Amino acid sequence: MIEIQQLKLPITHDSRHLKEKVCRMLNIKEEQLLSLEILRQSIDARKKQEISYVYTLLAETEKEEKVYKKQNHKNISLAEKKEYVFPVPGKEKLNNSPVIVGSGPAGLFCGYLLAKMGYCPIILERGGKIEERRKDVSLFWETGVLNTESNVSFGEGGAGTFSDGKLNTLVKDKSGRNRKVLEIFMDHGAPKEIAYEAKPHIGTDKLSQVIPAIRKDIENMGGRFLFHTCMTDIRTENGKITGLCINHDTWLDAEILILAIGHSARDTFGMLFDRKIPMEAKAFALGLRAEHPQEMISVSQHGKEASGILPPAPYKVTANLTNGRGVYSFCMCPGGYVVNASSEQGRLAVNGMSYYKRDSKNANSAIIVSVTPKDFLGEGPLAGIAFQRNLEKTAYDLGQGKIPQQLYGDFKNKRLSKSYGNFSSCTKGDTAFAPLHTLLPGEIYASFIEGMESFPRKIPDFNREDVILSGVESRTSSPVRILRDEKLESPIKGIYPCGEGAGYAGGIMSAAMDGLKTAEMVARIYAPTEKDVT
Hints:
By secondary structure, this protein is an alpha/beta fold. It folds into 3 domains: 77 residues, Alpha-Beta Plaits (2-Layer Sandwich); 229 residues, FAD/NAD(P)-binding domain (3-Layer(bba) Sandwich); 191 residues, no CATH class. Helix content is 28%, strand content 24%. It contains 13 helices and 24 strands. β14 and β15 form a beta hairpin. α3 runs parallel beside α6. The longest helix has 18 residues.
């Protein structure tokens, strides 16, 4: 195969133009090009008058060696297509099927791989299937009636199901896990362009169709899902896991327990702490959602002419402050909605969401400030959870159960907003104007403003007075890390902390990749499960 990097074409090009340029670069006739695969597609918008698509491609040609030897171009090289390889299974016998707690990206992809390789996993999910979960979430957004076991955080697919389905990650990947995750998504109905877009996304609407397809495949391969099933206790003997209790009344024997519990399973963290599972508090970030008109963002990022041709533009802004804190955008949703993502009665948290078409009038992202265990009002591994809960209770009280909002100019000047400015909010869930400036602790409040005031250097007018702020964005990542060693195993043998909730991922892709990695680690030791194992 021949790899071609940095191939540029105008944003108005089509597939025919792409093929023609590849043939010109390789100095071959079109019939000599046997196949062409896009490895990566990104947008170069540094010069607004010359915006282009930039490609990395893999070409298969006749007489490949001969074609390559004629090249004298630094962006053309010989390459081998890397395939994901599952490890050779171990030989130690399992008396019970591996149990995975949680069906978010980490649990789902761990379960998929284990099922495919013959381990017949049991996947526990405290919430329901997506079909019923969507009804519960819609009811909550429409009426405010919260189901604490079936909401934006809990249920099949995890918290990422009601987001943008963003699949970009900063994780270095030499093993091919990134590509494998994308292939699994595509095999179950995700758009094919996620394989090569620089910032791929599926969208909440399509993701809610893809995930049940993965579940059904797992079941067909011998896996089993238990919905409305919460792990409420565990049993250990001689430093090893031996069983777990579900729904307070039924015990399952288990030699392998994979904890893919997500970042919002606070009662589960408490139970694990009580059972002396080693864990520690970790840094995370919190702040507020900020809405801007999507047209403003697209024009800033792509220019006025190109913004009408290209998809709604994303952005990323960061600032490192003199006080040592970082302020940055997180989970940016082009053409998206701010959503009420609460999971506990009397507490309120927000998140961002986009559908596949990203066609709402607003862009939103979390503008968040880094916090460390030094900021937490308490001691011990669960101090960060207590810190989040206090902020979420205040947010709930400020909005009287509705999403509390404030315009940025009023937030900065500590006055209550009375109406929107030149644009209105795009939300899922009722809203109410409230004094958000009283929500964030002093240094975090000041850091948020300092960051907002620095961002116009990248995006003009980012700090405009009528930016709509919503709070609180408190669940950017887990405030807890469940300890594991280089083999991904807890000091309590047989327990494998996995994914975002356990403190080892941040987002759909990295969590799913950690799920694959955990499945690999289990498989290296144990032989596939016999079919009659329960």
